[in-house]
Amino acid sequence: MGIFNVSNSHAESQIRASCNDMDMNKERAGLLLGLLGMGIWGCTTSSGGLQTDQSGGSDPFWTGRNEIMVMDFEAEDSTGMLSAQDAIILPIADAGVTQGQRALRMDLKGDVTHAGITIRPEDPIDASQFEHFSLVFDATNLSNEKSAQIYTIVESAHGGTVRRSQVIPAGATETYVFELEGPYASHETGLRDDPKPWDMQAKQMKIHGLKQQVDFSLIKSIQIYMSYTIEDRTLVLDNIRVVESPKIDEDYLVGIVDKYGQAAKNEFEGKITSDEQLRQLAEEELAQLAAEGTMAGRSQFGGWSDGPKLEATGYFRAEKVNGKWALVDPEGYLFFSHGLANVRMANTTSFTGVDFRNESVRYRDPEDVTPEDSRGMVALGPEVTRTAYVAYPDRRKMFTELPSYDDPLANNYSYRREQHIGPFDHGETFSHYQANLERRYGEPTPGAHLEKWLDITQDRFLNWGFTSFGNWAAAEFYDQNRMPYFANGWIIGDFQTVKSGMDYWGPMPDVFDPEFERRAELTVSVVADEVKDNPWCVGVFIDNEKSWGAPGPPKRHFGIALHALEKEASESFIKAKFVKILKAKHGDIQTLNQAWQTDFSNWKALEIAGEYVNRKEFSQAMKDDLSQLTEAYASRYFEVVHAAMEEYLPNHLYMGCRFTTWGMTPEIRTAAKKYVDVFSYNFYHEALTEGYWEFLEDIDRPSIIGEFHIGTLESGLFHPGLIIATDHEDRARMYKAYIRSVVDNPYFVGAHWFQYLDSPTSGRAHDGENYNVGFVRITDVPYASMVEAAKELNQELYPRRYGESK
Per the omega criterion (within 30 degrees of 0), is the bond before 755 cis? Predict the structure, then answer.
């Protein structure tokens, strides 16, 4: 196994290539090339006066172990294979060198999907000599002001990839560890990610996506990059190596969650140690909320009472005002929806490792329209609990203490009939959050603590200055008439489906199946029964993060159409519809054959199931047809939902289905524009970038951010979340930057943080997410830094968005 490095000539080629790929300062590029030609390394890339914290250098925990050095950047000449994407790379002898004399500086372009490097050696890295091993590297952030989130993707020569992520604090040098083979690298525990496995200074890279069963004995490539940053960034990498991992203690996951649902073995700011402490904090907060009250300058519905008054219709609506899209509240005041999503108990439970032999807890009503993760608490009677048994012993051992079935807190047990992602088929769950509410506020009468929770939650929102809830507010808030809210529904049922190839949440519905239309109408009618033309309901989200496809190769962009074509038309509504569309367009089979470069003998041959997804060549005419089929599919989806909304909820905005960056194409947006009132997007990045959102000008419709969040490991949880901050202060800084980027965009009418409270430390029952995503902890204690940031943002919200007061 050789050492892979970057030579002068390679760095020169990278700079020249980067000049063509990105808007680089030509004078600076010329200077770099000239200095390369003179053989000057160190002084060419000084950190511009920035002081980096390199006191620790490379973590000594990982030195002296058996390793394979992948790249240490010491040799000037090499046969190593390193390429850059939207980045200028240059070996340096300056800030960021942790061992030896040189490291690699990366000047990364902002507002792009990937900006970084790919290491792809001529021969795969052979790590088969190690039983357990990790990817380890050192990284420096040359910004003294902003942290930098890095992503790493490791690809196996046997097939499969895993992605992980971490944060580099501002001005810091850290060692990063990506466990590739080991007891917990791919072992499903019911946690999205586990606690740090070793006592080390290095940062454990956190799962970004899912754990995967991948054989990394031969490593094909390694990517290290940043994604969708709002500005250009500079990082330094050094000593990229594969290291044999030390042994992990067998009781690594035993007793990791305490009676309050917190990390039992970790100490962190805000950790609760007694019921008395919980009650005291509650009393102090209740007094503060009563003294301060509601943020001033708001209408009854949270609109801008100090701003202009427009036409009042009695319901929320959208209007473009002075070139900016806006929501208008029922009284006619300008409204911007800033709030927190998922304010409910449905996602507070976590599997305990216990199950029941009594089958009644697993019964499903075939007409039920509520998916499992939106289902509320399920009462467990003695006829069920007396059949309890430990179904998952390792899971059960994670908890230091859970109440007995005759304990007053036993009402916080519930049941899940399935898990979307994870190792559990079904089983008992427990809500530490709800139990902590009971400890915190008491329960003089059954359910009193939940009534108190409704009141204090709304008191908090109004005091912190939020104008609405986000999606998935508990239905118990609907008739409170204190906070505007968004209703939601899911179209689930026994209709036909079709894959898209990106089916994270499951396959897509066959929208041409009459059963889909029936189920959509049923879903919207149930929502209508809950809302009952309540003016406090801003609008309705239907479905979430559908896998529509994404720009890229045809199998990624047109996955729905290609998978549909692989079906048998006599057995598939969508295939039959697509054949009908193609017949109408091409007329005869010879014309289609010429366009597609195929040799179908007749239309019957097209109706037969075939292979399309893995086709190697796609003519432009075929891609045009696939585009038409994709738009026809999406148009039918949005048409069906829109028709149901018009029938049952004509006074409320249709908020769309919350698009994602990985599940949206131009065809989908074109279709949605005909039917959706407000476009919704879940955008998990540091803030809104400019280039990505250029399409907003083309569709010119009001838009809303349905989900985003930022988290930190300083919270005591084992996973910070999708976007990572260094600490609580950095988290608040990033939150403010994100919201301001939305407020300043003329097309956006709101943004919703996901979510109100942290995920369970032991992983939410739905999919194991154990993220620091809350404004409040699992103990219901707010994060002071986030509350302070929210108040600052909400004080400036309306003047910043719409201008001076009237």
Answer: yes
How does 507-523 read in b/e, with b if 16+ C-beta sit within 10 Å? Answer: ebbbbbbeebbebbbbb
What would the two tokens of residue 306 be? 């100090």
C-alpha to C-alpha distances, 591 to 102, 606, 795, nearest whole angstrom: 61, 13, 63
**Helix, strand and coil percent figures for the chain, each rounded to 5:** 30, 20, 50
Supply the DSSP symbol for 685.
Answer: S
Q: Is the pLDDT of residue 555 over 90?
A: yes
Q: How many angstroms separate the Cα of 343 from the Cα of each of 119, 278, 510, 630, 738?
A: 43, 20, 31, 35, 21
Q: HSE, CB side, 13 Å, CA atoms: give it for residue 203.
A: 30
Identify whether the C-beta of residue 185 lies closer than 8 Å to the C-beta of residue 179: yes
**What is the DSSP code string of 639-667?**
HHHHHHHHHH-TTSEE----EETTS--HH
What does the CA dihedral 755, 759, 765, 766 come to, rounded to 10 degrees?
30
pLDDT for position 332: 98
Q: How many CB atoms lie within 10 A of CB 620?
A: 8
- What does pTM read for this prediction? 0.92
In 39-123, alpha helices (H): none
Q: Residue 321's beta-bridge partner residues?
A: 324
Q: What is the DSSP string of 746-784?
A: TTEEEEEEE-SBPPPTT--TTT---B---SB-TTS-B-H
Nearest alpha-carbon partner for 511 in 607, 633, 631: 633
Query: What share of the chain in percent tops pLDDT 70?
Result: 92
489 φ, ψ (degrees, to nearest 5): -155, 160
Angle among Cα 105, 108, 112 to the nearest 5 degrees reads 160
pLDDT of residue 597 exceeding 60, the answer is yes
Residue of 77, 178, 189, 42 whose CA lies nearest to 770: 189
Above 70 in pLDDT, residue 174?
yes
Rounded Cα distance between 699 and 672, Å, is 9
What sign has the CA pseudo-torsion 552, 553, 556, 559?
positive
